[in-house]
TrEMBL record:
GO terms for cellular component: respiratory chain complex I. InterPro entries: NADH_UbQ_OxRdtase-like_20kDa. This is Unannotated protein. Residues 55-140 form the NADH:ubiquinone oxidoreductase-like 20kDa subunit domain. One of its GO terms (biological process) is electron transport coupled proton transport. One of its GO terms (molecular function) is NADH dehydrogenase (ubiquinone) activity. PANTHER family: NADH DEHYDROGENASE, NADH DEHYDROGENASE [UBIQUINONE] IRON-SULFUR PROTEIN 7, MITOCHONDRIAL.
Length: 144
């Protein structure tokens, strides 16, 4: 199977926390599939998300799926979801993860990751803003 970027899964990479929200016990993992992964990276480089202490025990892990899911990559998404330990939620970042985006009618593209994994939050846009990503994470945690 092809290699894809997978950051933030505990034991398989870096986890992130929302900057300036120490009471928000949510860790964030990113499954980067296409250009929306750049927006996730932008949230990190702009300081909206920060690397979490690897020994930290979060109350929930949010798996962010950022980009276009092809049928060939669906086993990777399933494996990433199964690798998340404890309470967990999936966030679909951007139009492609939500519905296939501009490639919805391609034979190769899945019309939304919710046909593969349960999605708790959708962030619209092509691309979405990093601030919208962080707002959705905070909302998933039940905070505001
Ligand atoms: S929604 Fe737009 S920016 Fe995001 S992966 Fe799809 S084409 Fe790229």
């Amino acid at each position: 199977m092809p290699a894809i970027e997978m950051t933030g899964l505990r034991g398989a990479g870096r986890t992130y926390a929302v900057t300036g929200r120490p009471g928000l016990h949510v860790s964030v993992a990113n499954l980067g599939l296409a250009c929306c992964a750049v927006e996730f990276g932008s949230a990190v480089t702009r300081g909206l998300l920060e690397p979490a202490d690897p020994t930290w025990e979060p109350e929930m892990t949010v798996l962010v799926v950022s980009g276009t899911l092809t049928h060939q990559l669906t086993p990777h998404l399933t494996a990433a979801w199964n690798a998340v330990v404890g309470p967990r939620a999936v966030l679909a970042l951007g139009a492609c993860a939500t519905s296939g985006g501009p490639y919805w009618d391609s034979y190769a593209v899945v019309e939304g990751i919710d046909s593969v994994v349960p999605v708790a939050s959708y962030v619209p846009g092509c691309p979405p803003r990093p601030e919208a990503l962080v707002a959705a994470i905070v909302s998933l945690a039940g905070a505001s």
